[in-house]
Design a protein that fits this description.
single chain; alpha+beta; 5-stranded antiparallel β-sheet; 24% helix; 24% strand; binds nickel (II) ion
């Protein structure tokens, strides 16, 4: 099943998400559907709040970017109950977009390297370090679980300039090539 993607302005994108257990109903199906939904929208990441569920789960698939970043080549992963517990002091600017904010692309400053603990789809625990595009995608999706979107991380002046655009988006003024709600 392909879910409609929740657009900026919806409460579900602003609520912090809760951890889930192994017994979460139909978890396997939900994960499959999230990959399907992400692929249909040509996204590289999708967090559960973006399909209306406030649970700590996101998926990333940056295999399409394998040409630019070889580390992305086979990178298709599920992150459950993740915790980013260490970030580098060094930050970098990178252009980001989000399926929940169609048509908007902005340079966002974030730590270059992160350490994250999470469980995979089999609930096996992992503790890994990421940099490059993978670190960027993970941090972006992780923010969704905290009730944040990438525009929250822009400089106040830049945010101010985008204010009317965001208000319009929240009222339905946007175009997306995928199902939304
Ligand atoms: Ni996003």
């Amino acid at each position: 099943m392909i879910y409609p993607i929740v657009i900026f302005g919806s409460e579900v994108l602003r609520k912090p998400s809760v951890e889930i257990g192994e017994d979460y109903p139909e978890l396997k199906k939900l994960i499959e559907d999230m990959f399907l939904t992400m692929a249909a929208a040509e996204g590289v990441g999708l967090a559960a709040p973006q399909i209306g569920k406030n649970i700590r789960l996101f998926v990333v698939d940056c295999s399409a970017l394998g040409e630019e970043d070889p580390l992305c080549k086979d990178f298709r992963k599920v992150f459950i109950n993740p915790e980013i517990y260490e970030v580098s002091e060094n930050t970098i600017l990178w252009n980001e977009g989000c399926l929940s904010l169609p048509g908007l692309h902005e340079d966002v400053r974030r730590p270059e390297v992160i350490r994250i603990r999470y469980r995979d789809e089999h609930f096996v625990e992992h503790d890994e370090e990421y940099d490059g595009f993978r670190a960027r995608a993970i941090q972006h999706e992780y923010d969704h679980l905290e009730g944040k979107v990438f525009t929250d991380r822009l400089a106040p002046l830049r945010r101010q300039l985008l204010k009317s655009k965001l208000l319009g988006m929240a009222k339905g003024k946007y175009r997306a090539a995928y199902k939304t709600k």
